[in-house]
Known about the structure:
Layout: H1 5-14, H2 21-27, E1 40-42, E2 45-47, H3 53-56, E3 60-63, E4 68-71, H4 72-77, H5 81-86, H6 94-102, H7 105-116, H8 121-160, H9 179-188, H10 192-200, H11 209-233, E5 237-245, E6 251-261, E7 264-274, H12 281-294, E8 301-307, H13 319-326, E9 331-334, H14 336-350, H15 352-369, H16 372-380, H17 393-405, H18 407-419, H19 425-438, H20 441-464, H21 472-489, H22 492-505, H23 513-537, H24 555-560, H25 564-573, H26 580-591, H27 600-609, H28 617-628, H29 634-646, H30 656-667, H31 669-677, H32 680-692
Parallel strand pairs: 5-8, 8-9
Antiparallel strand pairs: 1-2, 3-4, 5-6, 6-7
Helix pairs in contact: 8-9, 8-11, 8-32, 9-10, 11-30, 11-32, 12-13, 14-15, 14-23, 15-19, 17-20, 18-19, 20-21, 20-22, 21-23, 22-23, 27-28, 29-30
Amino acid sequence: MESSTDLINDIITNGIMSYSYEHKLELKNKRPTPLLNLDVLDGKTIRKFQFSWYSKYVWLTGSQTKNKLFCYFCLLFRGDKKWSNEGITGVKNFDRTASKHAISEKHLLCQEQFQLLGQNQIDLIASEGKRLAALKFNEQVGNNRRILSRLIQVVCYLGKQEFPLCGHDESATSINKGNYLELLNLLSQEEQLIKDYLSSNSSFKGTSRDIQNDLILCITEVVNMQIMNELNKAKFVSVQVDETTDVSCKSQISIIFRYVIDNNIEERFIGFFDVSIDKTALELSNILLEQIQKWNIGNKIICQTYDGAAVMAGKVISVPGLIKNTYPNAIFIHSCAHQLNLVFLHGSKTIKAVRLFISDLTMFHTFFSSSPKRSELLREKWFKQSEKCEIRWENHSRAAATISANFTELKKIALCVMEEEDWDPMSICLANGLLHKLSNFKFVYLLCLFNKISMFSDHVFLTLQTKCTEDVQTCIKEIINMSTQLTFMRNEETVVMCSKSAVELNSELQYSDKDVQNLKYLTYEILDSIITQTNVRFQDFDILQFLEITDNKAFKDYKICFPVEKLLQLENIFPGVFDQERLKNELTIIFNNRSKYLPPKELLNYIIKADLREVYKELTKLLHLILCIPVTTVSSEKNNSALKRIKTFLRNTMTHDQLTNLCTLAIEKKMLDELIIDPTFIDIVIDLFSNIKNRNIDLKYKVL
């Protein structure tokens, strides 16, 4: 007995014409003969289906799903409608009905076709020809996909290296057709397949700009698919936003998602968004909400960090407020690096002496950078001036350190320019001004003072400029420690030490008691400004006290007195996210074991490697949340730098989507490298490419 109900249903639904020639031949020996329930009461007699009918009538078949009998010949070749489509359910007088059907004209014609199936040489030849044509077609598809894979590799290479693809003149007579075409021509010298394609193919121009843009789009989509896979695995996500202006003076915001996969902190670039027309809080928040919804991370957002536009932190209506209205768990954290920069820049704007000092530092840069001849003097002395940047305090700090370290050489350079005859009047005048500043007691004193302040501030800036700051607690401690150290500096000893250092730089300087007293007041004013600004601008730390729960240096104290208040704050900020009772018990176990007194990232690494995630389920979740909170938008700033490198004056006409796609390939080059190694990467890109629009090239295989 053979039951193949699905086969009968498929034949009835699709007909035998949907089958290949080889499949039709197989059907000759696959007549289904299922046991059916066709019992019917005829008076006092029960008429039953007889399984022996299948042997008596070699054309009889049945369907268990339909619970009906059919003629297999008529079913295959569309004979008698009652026996091929409707089916027979009556078993009363079945022998008479079956015998009558067996001698019918339609049945005999179908029987003839059934018997001749496989004997007709024309059908066999046609089937073989179809198979050979399919093989030849698939061979061409394979060649086409190999060619396209090379084009994809070229686009990936140029994208990662941030090179422009198109050339200004891509005509046949051009000596520079652009990186994309030139690289393909280079490959064609060693690869015959590429050479033949470039020289003979006329229907599909893989060298056109539309093709290049579509390939960039498809590769970016695969990268975004990988990011989406990571986001689906992540427990929590933070949003980082930064603002910049591109070469065409358009205002752009970059968006980054930060999350933790296992014990790795990932910061992924989502895109640039043009906000030149409207930079209001409502418009910015709409862009963010749209992206959060697009990437389906609304239930995972726990933090938002911004840098740049003042409207971000407005008191009446702000982006953080609008986002938090939709996603209550999305706490707002200032970018610590940005805030620290503002702390020091505020002092330079509000204190006249510091404002003049910063201007004097800029004068040194201007003197050397505006003349190749003057710059050569620096190279002869084997030192380099700092870069000019009016919006970053680190550059001012670096300039002060450079001037202090090369104080004597700078005096010699200024004297050299003033005394030698071959210098122009402007250079002599400026050199005299530099020499005057190097001999000014207040300028030299402030050099020494800010060098001393920089001992603490530069270390914090360096920590915050790490691309993926792993431990937010460390950053907070560094900032608090800097504020404490600056408070300790607020004494007369600091004034005396800086005065002595100034005299060591320039022995001609003399400080009277009155000068020292004035410098003391100035020193206190500068330090008070920095300390006050630090306290004001880092008020966010109050809502981050729950971070101290995982401060390994406090575990010893927590063993004696559990941090209940911090645990309650965690619940208030993220209600319903954690099982408080279980988390408390898990933390208690950690606090009671000195071998587990580890920083958050190391503790998470230990839990994962020891396969203890189910044991410390809530603690793992807490560590993911803490590591997900960013304290800097440095990754956004690096992305802005990539924007400026990619969107140059020579590439100012590209569309915004193309710009974002190219930036994605450049910024996420590490992920792209990992994807390229995957054997399925090229095939996925090609399949996406083939589905964008109809191409004059065959890229999909036929099923034989």
